[in-house]
Amino acid sequence: MRKLKVGIGGLGAVGYTVARALDRSIPGLVLAAVSARDTGRAQQRIATLERQVPVVSLAELAPMADVVVECLPASEFRNIAVPAVSLGRIFMPLSIGQLLVHDDVLEIARSAGGRVIAPTGALLGLDAVRAAAEGEIVSVRMVTRKPPAGLQGAPYLEQNGIDVLKVAEPTKIFEGSAREGAKGFPANVNVAAALSLAGVGPDRTGLEIWADPTVDRNVHSITVEADSARFEMKIENVPSKENPRTGKITALSTIAALRGLVSTLRAGS
Question: CATH assignment of 126-245, given 1.20.1440.20, 3.30.360.10, 3.40.50.150, 3.40.50.2300?
């Protein structure tokens, strides 16, 4: 069976973990190339792998791969997404919130025969939300609590003059829709974007963001009311040491999503 060639954009906390997993071998998949803003650091990281692959520009990545995994800052999203979907590739974004900002990416994919597969990431229960969406969902609400340092640098905080590092007690710093959250916190609420795409959409998905110095994990609580079920979910993710905005489970979810592309059996809808 021909192996699917995987290209990874970004070799940070998530991208490098995924690259190492592919290097150790996932049957049916092979790492073909990588791209990163810091080419020198990327080459150093690739040198630690058993199988060497080229470090190329974002524009060169899609022609070399069947599957393109995006693990980049939000500002680079379009530079990797458009070439991938224009060539009809499977595009696997981690900056899922950017799909709410660059919604034409899905139209380009549809026209070119590409697919956009968003990993579950640092969330849980998207299978249940998708199932409920086949019926009628009344409401979806998500509350995110993060250590203040994990929110630092978000555009919403800078625009509103909020110094999140001075927060001394649990403080709600944002309430609105998932779409609004994606714009204000592009590195922090990809989970809310994924939830909205699985359910009732970004404008009907409610979101609260709390800066909470009493927690040392990224905590996401979700409540769904539907005609088929009412369910609540909560996950507490251990932040990555390399990037506290990202939970360790995000990389593992991406590896699981890649494995699901070629596995004989996949559990869950």
Answer: 3.30.360.10
